[in-house]
Amino acid sequence: MDSVFSKEQVNQAVSDLGITDLAAATIGQVVLLAQKLEASTGEKFIRMDQGVPGFEPCAIGIQEEQRVLDTGIAAIYPPADGIAPLKNEASRFLKAFIDVDIAPSSCIPVVGSVEGSFGAFVAATQRDAKKKKVLFIDPGFPIQKSQLQVIGVEWVQFDIYDYRGDALREKIESYLSSGEIAAIIYSNPNNPAWICLDEAELRIIGHLATKYDVIVLEDLAYFCMDFRKDLAHPFAAPYQASVARYTDNYILMISGSKIFSYAGQRIGVLAVSDKLFKSVSADLASRYGTSGQFGATLTASILYMITSGTTHSVQYALAAMFRAASDGLFNFVDATSGYARRAARMKKMFEENGFHVVYDRDTNNEKVGDGFFFTIGHRGMSSGELMRELIYYGITSITLTTTGSTHDGIRACTSRMTDDQFSVLENRLKLFKANH
Question: Is the model's pLDDT at 20 over the cut of 90?
Fold first, then answer.
């Protein structure tokens, strides 16, 4: 057997789906391509494309949702700024695992971090008429750039690979000094590279954000998942690294999707610094006919216009999960640590068959950790070529090109790997090696 799927089969499916450039395909397009080929051939893919949680949802959340649904809460609209139990527990959770003080009033529930970033982009780029662009510290989550396309906001970007440590200061300042940047966004741990910005780098970002009055959007979708450190203990060091220690110009995006495997219920929290929440913008006041207070505008004039609030029952679920974590009754770090074990095993298989990890080092030349994502390259192959070739061998992924990376390779997700698939992956990688 030369491959799992023939070039003709893949080309026909690509054509049928109207994908004009497979190298630039979105996650959604790759998912559809895999589903189409599986349906037509009966052969299953090793799915490394979409970051779907790979563990059972937290039972604490399910039980709480069931309890409150029985009270008839489904008939009642949720408050725009969130229910008090969730706001209180979000504030406490952030103190427990980041050691920062954010008032409950500054914690806003959102329909997952995707809605959160969408609303935050709108508010940040409308706060000051002179600042209209967003700076991406890449590689990053492709959907966030798609959101800016929807709202008509420009962005600039750079690949952090060559700008770790002190080099980060000059690079970021070269963009901020233009006076056009409204916000900086990054994920930590990083999607897709799994690199982790350290405290020194976050201090640089925070200081520059204050100097140039720029809002930092810190995407913490993979909260406490730097498994090289023991981050599992509430109210005890070490804590999740965060820019919140170094500036008052920040919005933290906390998601229930990965840390509690609660992705299907679409729940997260925007935690806005108290100072930023209470700040007043003349441009926001003029646009919305309000006082221009940042937090109130974000909540009532922007987020509420998107979803009219966040599902009532799931707010109670997230509050219960936050409470259990902060009380030390539910170790969400341990519950997700299986991703690291999967990543280590998958990386080893790839490396034994001629591949290499693209983003392989963190600051101070430390080996990058294992977790939800990792990056893979193959000598002489562009991102698009490697992604297409892997499809022939029944392995899906997305290209690093779509994440803003300047390096060739693909993003591999560990979440959907099951024990029975490792032998399949190994055999397919051996076949790939034999033919390359």
Answer: no
